[in-house]
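Help needed: design a sequence for this.
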């Protein structure tokens, strides 16, 4: 443990520690040490007393494995900050606070109660057939997609949502995202693709390489953009054998591919990851991009329906991310399961203990990483609605953590948004 760290021209001073003592991260005891004006304090529940850094070192050094006592978290403060940097940090904090407040406002608006006339619009279309199925309701959207009464009828509860509705809704999302970026330069810049793009891509890169030329991107409303690597994210609907919809995301900011599937067991995340990885490599080379560095080996794949295993025993070499398994291998948490040599038992409501029966050394804790396992799962035929709302959430920089119980409401809202030809606030 270092009390001071030099990183280039920047110095960092140790300011606080969180200590854990116990055999597992879900048992034992935690306490902390805090440096306040060069005086260290030992904070243990309601007991606070003065101590010294040397005493803290004695508690930690040499006892990591023998007593299972370790510095769980260490906090450092930058100590050579000039006035300009302080002002910049202040502005960044204010920006983060504003973003958080805006996020709360946006999240609340996405599930606000429908107004009475909006409910009446939905009933008129789905219950009373007041719009003939062959009539064109609207085609005034960014992609000039016509919408008929027959298409709108697929938003009736528990009906399969067709391509036209998804494409129309993605066009509305694209228009809104462009407007938001014009108003706020920090807003996520998202390129949305239609339902045909991924299907065509699976036949080969040549089938879609013209779709992402600069002139095509600019015709979509992104004036001045030359290639897809200038975006923060790309979102696409994925049709699985004409029986299921998923949502895929290319995240250029965090260098990761994300696969959102509302029904485990249908659709292959590996196929998506391989297809998109190959596309990105070929796209980068085909467009002769020189202003942005790209290396697909730096990217990670996130299946939002995958459980990740983390090593629990620090004596095992390679502490950290160990291996991943699909959730359908062994998810029966209420009983012991044997999967090859992997033994799974319930540890609590939130994790299971995974142990390789070939050895006594390797023991792991199965848990979710980041937002894994939080993507909601469908009960009815709502996969198209899940896909549209997943894109909606990601466009606004939020993880799609809505509920399956929201689906009936979302169907009504999407229909009203199509009638209004814009995303509702």
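Sure. Designed sequence:
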């Amino acid at each position: 443990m270092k009390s001071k760290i030099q990183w280039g021209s920047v110095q960092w001073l140790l300011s606080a520690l969180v200590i854990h003592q116990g055999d597992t991260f879900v048992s034992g005891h935690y306490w902390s040490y805090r440096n306040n004006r060069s005086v260290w304090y030992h904070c243990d529940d309601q007991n606070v007393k003065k101590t010294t850094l040397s005493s803290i070192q004695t508690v930690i050094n040499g006892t990591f494995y023998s007593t299972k006592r370790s510095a769980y978290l260490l906090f450092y403060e930058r100590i050579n900050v000039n006035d300009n940097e302080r002002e910049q940090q202040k502005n960044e904090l204010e920006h983060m606070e504003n973003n958080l407040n805006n996020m709360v406002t946006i999240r609340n608006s996405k599930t606000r109660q429908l107004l009475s006339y909006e409910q009446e619009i939905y009933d008129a279309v789905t219950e009373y057939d007041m719009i003939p199925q062959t009539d064109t309701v609207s085609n005034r959207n960014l992609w000039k997609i016509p919408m008929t009464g027959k298409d709108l009828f697929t938003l009736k509860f528990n009906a399969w949502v067709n391509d036209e509705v998804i494409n129309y809704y993605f066009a509305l999302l694209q228009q809104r995202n462009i407007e938001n970026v014009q108003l706020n330069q920090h807003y996520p810049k998202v390129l949305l693709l239609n339902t045909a793009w991924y299907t065509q891509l699976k036949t080969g890169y040549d089938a879609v390489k013209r779709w992402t030329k600069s002139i095509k991107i600019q015709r979509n409303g992104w004036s001045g953009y030359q290639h897809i690597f200038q975006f923060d994210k790309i979102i696409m609907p994925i049709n699985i054998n004409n029986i299921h919809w998923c949502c895929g995301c290319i995240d250029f900011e965090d260098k990761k591919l994300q696969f959102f599937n509302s029904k485990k067991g249908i659709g292959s995340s590996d196929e998506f990851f391989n297809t998109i990885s190959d596309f990105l490599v070929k796209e980068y080379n085909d467009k002769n991009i020189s202003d942005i560095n790209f290396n697909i080996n730096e990217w990670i794949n996130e299946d939002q329906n995958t459980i990740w295993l983390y090593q629990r025993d620090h004596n095992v070499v390679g502490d950290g991310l160990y291996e991943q398994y699909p959730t359908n291998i062994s998810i029966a948490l209420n009983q012991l399961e044997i999967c090859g040599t992997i033994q799974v038992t319930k540890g609590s409501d939130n994790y299971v203990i995974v142990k390789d029966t070939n050895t006594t050394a390797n023991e792991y804790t199965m848990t979710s990483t980041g937002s894994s396992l939080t993507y909601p799962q469908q009960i009815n035929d709502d996969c198209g609605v899940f896909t549209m709302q997943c894109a909606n959430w990601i466009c606004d920089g939020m993880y799609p953590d809505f509920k399956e119980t929201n689906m009936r409401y979302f169907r009504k809202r999407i229909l009203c948004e199509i009638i209004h030809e814009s995303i509702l606030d």
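The longest helix spans residues 83-110.
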